[in-house]
Specification:
Number of domains: 1
Structural class: alpha+beta
Order of helices and strands: HHEEHHEEE
Helix content: 25-40%
Largest sheet: 3 strands, antiparallel
Oligomer: single chain
Length: 119
């Protein structure tokens, strides 16, 4: 049994789901610039215009599914729907705390992981 999708939590996820619903092959390189522009427009509503320069991602297709990969810690957070205030701190540190979660970004594998911090 499937899970019902919840809209309006993550604007990037919403964009990708809508694109797939309209049969856009999001992994097709011909759409790469359009997706980047759409993500930049989403960010214009959320972050300072100067911060959009940190937007760097890749879309990989494997086994009929796609993976959206943030190529820096800031983009990885943005793609998960988290918009930190201090981008320089996030970019300079491998480990950072946001709310009750301790995030770690691996620059070699481009993976963002977190653990719940007990108070």
């Amino acid at each position: 049994m499937g899970k019902r999708y919840n809209w309006d939590i993550n604007p990037f996820q919403d964009f990708m789901v809508r694109s797939i619903m309209y049969n856009v092959d999001v992994a097709d390189e011909n759409y790469e610039a359009d997706i980047y522009s759409s993500f930049a427009m989403i960010l214009e509503e959320i972050v300072d215009d100067n911060d959009i320069k940190h937007l760097d991602f890749e879309i990989k297709m494997k086994d009929n599914s796609f993976k959206l990969i943030g190529k820096n810690a800031v983009t990885a957070l943005w793609l998960t729907g988290i918009f930190p205030r201090d981008l320089n701190f996030v970019l300079k540190n491998k480990v950072f705390l946001i709310g009750d979660r301790k995030y770690k970004y691996n620059k070699k594998t481009y993976k963002l992981t977190y653990t719940i911090v007990n108070e």
